[in-house]
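Standup, Tuesday
Yesterday: got the pipeline producing structure tokens again.
Today: sanity-check two examples.
Blockers: none.

Example 1:
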Amino acid sequence: MPSPLNDGEDPGSSPVNGSSARSYQSSGKRKVRTKKKKGTITANVAGTKYEIVRIAIKEGDFIKARDDDETANLIWNDSAVQHEKIAELRNYQRINHFPGMGEICRKDCLARNMSKMIKCQAQEYSFIPKTWIFPAEYTQFQNYVKELRRKRKQKTFIVKPANGAMGHGISLIRNCEKLPAQEHFIVQEYLDKPFLMEGYKFDLRIYILVTSCDPLRIFLYNDGLVRMGTEKYHAPSEANLSQLYMHLTNYSVNKHNENFERDETADKGSKRSIGWFTEFLRTNDYDVAKFWGDVSELVVKTLIVAEPHVLHAYRMCRPGQPPGSDSVCFELLGFDIILDRKLKPWLLEINRAPSFGTDQKIDYDVKKGVLLNALKLLNIRASDKKRNLAQQKAEAQRRLYGHGSTKKLSAASSDWEKQRHTLERRKEELKERLAQVRKQISREEHEKQHLGNYR
């Protein structure tokens, strides 16, 4: 929860002047101490269509700002924002998107960046199905299919739009000669031996909070959504390739099936909670610690791929910002993960604008927790704005009058003056470094105390 402004000294401990004491004695009445007015933390939520975001903002003690207020402490947008907007933010502000995150959130960019990592660290990045980007890798794909034929093997492939979402435009194929050579899409090997739940295929929506890219700080939410297919799973064949309710786990696809089950509890229906799934694994003697360890490893390794792109884009937007300073950006990502029959997690895709729709009670419960816990971890305080304005004023005065900075040496300076100048400069550097260390310790202490349901 954001911290209130410092109330200052206890008036009861400060000296009382003579006239005040006489007035107090003559009245014979108890003096009433007036509290300082609590500072307000504002949030601009004009850029979101989701009511659950507004509810979380209100419960997090934020005040809803005007739609045209660009000075709010928090700015929330459903879609990615322009780099210019990030560049214009003041240091006390926070916005819910990083620049450059599209490098892992677009399907084609994710495939391209993962391919580079697989070439140099194949063992570490074995959680991505074989992927080809069309039209650039059409020839490589056809060569792979020919090699399969030579070995008398046949595989199923899944075709996805390069920048699609919500299951739109996805299809399964086995006859690869029919694929057009010039269209822009992604082709992946289909995982045909998934872990099944009551005979149904499913995937997991894992929520990840990134609070900083310099250094990279990642938090994984311990709950999420289990999204199930709505027809019993059978291995792909020519006869069932078009049965998307069986092969796809996207909620946006399966909700249209008459077999989709809506339930108010977390352990029934076509959408369930990861908290329930964790208990299911534990009850059935699966290694829950290993499961979460594998998921955490997948998330960290994937974000390591994104980090140089995000850091470069962030520094271009915020030049001159010292390392370790508070990030004006954060991001809530939705990782879509599928498990094979050995419980190994495979990365399907990453959403930089995960849906915060609340069609069912389970959506409301999980997503509200994701948002409220994230807001607490961000530690947005009412005092941030006032402190930032004071720092800007002090910096302007230093530039104008030259106060507080190390004096410049002239060509005629003596050795003693040069030595003193070096010591003063070193003293300034140490003071800055000490301030950074204290800030880092304070941040880490806050995170430990306010992890909530994140890890």
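Example 2:
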Amino acid sequence: MAVAERLWRLCNLFMAAFFGLAAAVQVVYLVPAALTLLVSIKPSVTDNGVWRSLCDLHSGGCIVGTIALACSLFAYAQGNILHEEEGRELFGLVIITIWMSLCRSSAKSPMGGVRLIAAIVVALFPFVSWLYIYVNKEMRASWPTHCKTVI
């Protein structure tokens, strides 16, 4: 197995873990968690019609949700959008959409080059963001109570 294929599988495993953890609080992450786990096990699953249909349907829903949340945020946000629940949800939907797009396009040609670098960046982004927010006491201080009990 080539290095690029191992990295692609590892990225999918990271994203499956992220989506799985996120699914504990937002059901919208269950479908990408399952689809991404399948890709980490067998990357060629992205050629499967059922996999592609689920991916397309879920991505379409995420795009609609992204547009709705973005409109809401632009109309009502009063500061840093990461301090708004809708802002965090918006970023989650964007991550899902980008990741599902990367997975879907991996069926056409092997992952490598710019797409593999993009996959690595996107796979690390949620974990690096979480770490930054977790150690940033100022940001955590402004959270609502239900967010202060997360890992």
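Quick observation on example 2: The mean pLDDT is 87. Residues 129 and 135 are 10 Å apart (CA to CA).
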